[in-house]
C-alpha cells in the first residue's frame, strides 16, 4: 500500500494473489530467500509518455500513453493495448501483473505486459483514430520488438488499430518485423482464430469445470455481459455447445431475448456497424432493452460469463445470481468480479473460473501467431482451435491439480494463482537476483 498509494485495482490484484500463496511459501522457502514476493510485485519498468495528435478541426489534443513491462522471466513481454478514458497507472499495472501469471499458465514462452492510453475512441473519426494511433506508436516503438515486447489489442483496440500500429512501426524501423504485434488481420500476418479465441477459450474452460460435476453447457441458460470481442465469441461457442444465451449488454444497458440471443445480429450491430446494443430490439421484436448494465445479473440463469470490464459484478449482483440458482461463473473479462462477489460464489458452491485461467485463450493464440510469424506460415482455423482446446484443458488441469495438492480442492482461484506463480517464481530464481 505504501509503495503504490491510491492504486486500487493493482492492490486488489496483488492482494488476491498474496491470499493464495501462504502454502506455497511453506513448501518452497527458496521463494522467500530469493525475495520473490517483493520482486514479483514490482514491474520491470513502467513507461509513461505524452501522445499529441491533431483532431479533425485542427486542434491539438494531448493524451497519456502507458506501457507496463511487468515481468519477462518466461519470455518477451506480452499483453494488450487498451484505449479507454478510464486507463491509468493502477489499471495498467493490475492488468500487466495478472497477465504475467496468465501467460505463464498457457505454457507458452511469454512474459507479462500491458499498455494503453486514456484516449476515448468513441465519437472519433477513422482519420482521428489513425493519427492518434500513429502518434502513440511513434513513442512506444522505442521500447517494443518481436523479442522484447509484443503488444496486442484489448478494449478499444482491434485489428484496425493494430494495423495502424504495425504500419507505423515498420515505417519507423524501415523493415517488416512480422512478430512485433499480434491481433493482426489474418490476411496480413494475423492468426486465424485469434478474434474468437478469448471467448471460445472461456467457454472451453467452463465446460471443463462443468465436466468435473458430470454436467455441460447443453440445455443451459446463459447470460453474458458486454457485447464486444470476448462476449460475442463466448456467446457463439456457448450456443454451439447447446446453450441458450438469454442476455448480453453494453455500457448503457442490456437486452433480454427469451428466444435466445442471435449472435449474427450482435456482430452486425457492434462489430460491423458500431451501434448500441439497444438497436437489437428493432430486429427481434420479442427482445426487450433495459437501461443500466448491472441489471443483467438479475436475469435468472445457470451460467454467467462476465465479459465486459473490471469490477462489473459486485457482491449484490453475486447474491442475486446465487438466489436465482446460478451453477457456474467464468470470467471472460479481466477481474470482472469483486473480491466479495468471488467469496459469495465460493461460499455457495458455485463453480468459479477466474480470469487469469478462463480468459487465457486469447493470449495463447497470440503466442501461436508469434510462432506462425517466426515460421513464416499460417495454420488453418481448425488447427488453431484444436490447439486452443488442448491449452484450455491443460490450464484447467494445472489449476485443479495445484488447488488439490496445496489443500484447496475445487478452489480454482487459489489453483490458478499458485500454478501461475510457481512457474514465474521458478524462472526468476533460476535467473538470479536482479
Ligand atoms: P471490447 O472493447 O471489444 O468490448 C467491451 C464490451 O464491454 C463492449 O461491449 C462495452 O460496451 C462493454 N462494456 C464496457 N463497460 C461495461 C459495463 N460496465 N457493463 C457492461 N458492458 C460494458 O473489449 P474486449 O471484449 O476485447 O475485452 C473485454 C474484457 O476482456 C476486458 O476486461 C479485457 O481486458 C478482457 N480480455 C480481452 C481479451 C481479448 O482477446 N480481447 C483477452 C483477455 C481478456 P460499449 O460498446 O458500450 O463500450
Automatic annotation (TrEMBL):
Q: Which UniProt keywords apply?
A: NAD, Nucleotide-binding, Oxidoreductase
Catalytic site positions? 114
Q: Name one Pfam family in it.
A: ELFV_dehydrog_N
Name the site position(s) for Important for catalysis.
154
Residue ranges occupied by any Glutamate/phenylalanine/leucine/valine/L-tryptophan dehydrogenase C-terminal domain in the UniProt entry: 191-432
Binding of NAD(+) occurs at 198, 229
Positions that bind substrate: 78, 99, 102, 153, 366
Q: Which Gene Ontology CC terms are recorded?
A: cytosol
GO MF annotation list: glutamate dehydrogenase (NADP+) activity; nucleotide binding
Record bears the keyword Chaperone? no
InterPro entries xrefs: Aminoacid_DH-like_N_sf, Glu/Leu/Phe/Val/Trp_DH, Glu/Leu/Phe/Val/Trp_DH_C, Glu/Leu/Phe/Val/Trp_DH_dimer, Glu_DH, Glu_Leu_Phe_Val_DH, NAD(P)-bd_dom_sf, NAD_bind_Glu_DH
Give an example GO biological process. Answer: glutamate biosynthetic process
NCBIfam families recorded? PRK09414.1 (NF006929)
Identify the PANTHER family for this entry: NADP-SPECIFIC GLUTAMATE DEHYDROGENASE 1-RELATED
Subunit notes for this chain? Homohexamer.
Query: What protein family does this chain belong to?
Result: Belongs to the Glu/Leu/Phe/Val dehydrogenases family.
Q: What is this protein called?
A: Glutamate dehydrogenase
The source organism is Psychrobacillus glaciei
- Native organism taxonomy: Bacteria, Bacillati, Bacillota, Bacilli, Bacillales
Amino acid at each position: 500500500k505504501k509503495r503504490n498509494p491510491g492504486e486500487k485495482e493493482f492492490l486488489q490484484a496483488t492482494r488476491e494473489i498474496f491470499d493464495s500463496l501462504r502454502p506455497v511459501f511453506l513448501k518452497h522457502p527458496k521463494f522467500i530467500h530469493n525475495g520473490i514476493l517483493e520482486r514479483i510485485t514490482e514491474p520491470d519498468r513502467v513507461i509513461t509518455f505524452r501522445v499529441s495528435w491533431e483532431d479533425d478541426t485542427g486542434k491539438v489534443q494531448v493524451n497519456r500513453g502507458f506501457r507496463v513491462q511487468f515481468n519477462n522471466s518466461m519470455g518477451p513481454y506480452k499483453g494488450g493495448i487498451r484505449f479507454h478514458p478510464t486507463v491509468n497507472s493502477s489499471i495498467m499495472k493490475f492488468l500487466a501483473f495478472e497477465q504475467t501469471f496468465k501467460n505463464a499458465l498457457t505454457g507458452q514462452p511469454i512474459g507479462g505486459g500491458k499498455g494503453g492510453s486514456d484516449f476515448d475512441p468513441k465519437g472519433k473519426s477513422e482519420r482521428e483514430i489513425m493519427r492518434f494511433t500513429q502518434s502513440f506508436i511513434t513513442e512506444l516503438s522505442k521500447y517494443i520488438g518481436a523479442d522484447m515486447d509484443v503488444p496486442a489489442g484489448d478494449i478499444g483496440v482491434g485489428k484496425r488499430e493494430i494495423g495502424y500500429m504495425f504500419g507505423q512501426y515498420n515505417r519507423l524501423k524501415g523493415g517488416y518485423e512480422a512478430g512485433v504485434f499480434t491481433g493482426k488481420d489474418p490476411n496480413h500476418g494475423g492468426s486465424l482464430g485469434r478474434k474468437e479465441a478469448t471467448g471460445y477459450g472461456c467457454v472451453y474452460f467452463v465446460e471443463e469445470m462443468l465436466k468435473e460435476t458430470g454436467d455441460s453447457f447443453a440445455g443451459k441458460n446463459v447470460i453474458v455481459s458486454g457485447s464486444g470481442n470476448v462476449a460475442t465469441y463466448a456467446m457463439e461457442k456457448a450456443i454451439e455447445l447447446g446453450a441458450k444465451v438469454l442476455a448480453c449488454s453494453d455500457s448503457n444497458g442490456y437486452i433480454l431475448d427469451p428466444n435466445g440471443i442471435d449472435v449474427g445480429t450482435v456482430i452486425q450491430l457492434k462489430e460491423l456497424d458500431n451501434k448500441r446494443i439497444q438497436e437489437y430490439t428493432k430486429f427481434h421484436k420479442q427482445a426487450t432493452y433495459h437501461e443500466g448494465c448491472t441489471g443483467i445479473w438479475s436475469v435468472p440463469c445457470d451460467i454467467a460469463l462476465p465479459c465486459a470490464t473490471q469490477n462489473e459484478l459486485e457482491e449484490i449482483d453475486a447474491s442475486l445470481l446465487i438466489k436465482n440458482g446460478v451453477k457456474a461463473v467464468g470470467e471472460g473479462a479481466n477481474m470482472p468480479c469483486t473480491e466479495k462477489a468471488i467469496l459469495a460464489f465460493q461460499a455457495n458452491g458455485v463453480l468459479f473460473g477466474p480470469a487469469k485461467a478462463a480468459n487465457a485463450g486469447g493470449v495463447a493464440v497470440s503466442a501461436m501467431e508469434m510462432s506462425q510469424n517466426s515460421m513464416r506460415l499460417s495454420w488453418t482455423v481448425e488447427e488453431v482451435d484444436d490447439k486452443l482446446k488442448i491449452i484450455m484443458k491443460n490450464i484447467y488441469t494445472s489449476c485443479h491439480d495445484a488447488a488439490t495438492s496445496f489443500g484447496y480442492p475445487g478452489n480454482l482461484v487459489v489453483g490458478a494463482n499458485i500454478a501461475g506463480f510457481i512457474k514465474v517464481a521458478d524462472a526468476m530464481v533460476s535467473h538470479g537476483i536482479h
